[in-house]
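As a warm-up, study this chain.
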Amino acid sequence: MTDLTDEQKAEYFRRSYVAADGLWFMKVEEMCGFEATLKLDEAVWKVLPKIQARTIKAMMKLGSGLEGLQEAIAARLCLEGFDYDLKIQENGFEVIVKKCPWHDLMIGSKRGELSEKVGDLICRVENSVWSQEFKEIDTDFGEIGFEREDMICKGRSRCVLRFYRMTKME
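Now compare it with the structure written out below.
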């Protein structure tokens, strides 16, 4: 049917996904303003990560819990073009993002001044949803927490994302 390789096909769909996300945001912003668009974007990113997490979980045949989430997050970051390191910790894992393609796109499109507002909200929502999709339902300590430390979109050299097993007290 086509002479494109599987890698080229995947790249085509990755670029289309990124372009659709950015174009959707800019066109809605033209009609509704930035704040209303950001609220709509947040609503979208409360649902899309559920679909993504469930798809990756099924495709990779991953279980629930931190181990499954760790593999899924690594796959997602790789697919989306992040440059990152992943470090196992006693109660979870930490992702150190050295290069964020979403921030780079905003800088490249001369919208860097909005990167902090968009990144701060969407990154938190997206990763929190992923965490919830991997919680262990049949255990007392099945909830997975998510927190951020440094953020590239806030002028830091890296983002630090922590995923950890929550205790009953949290």
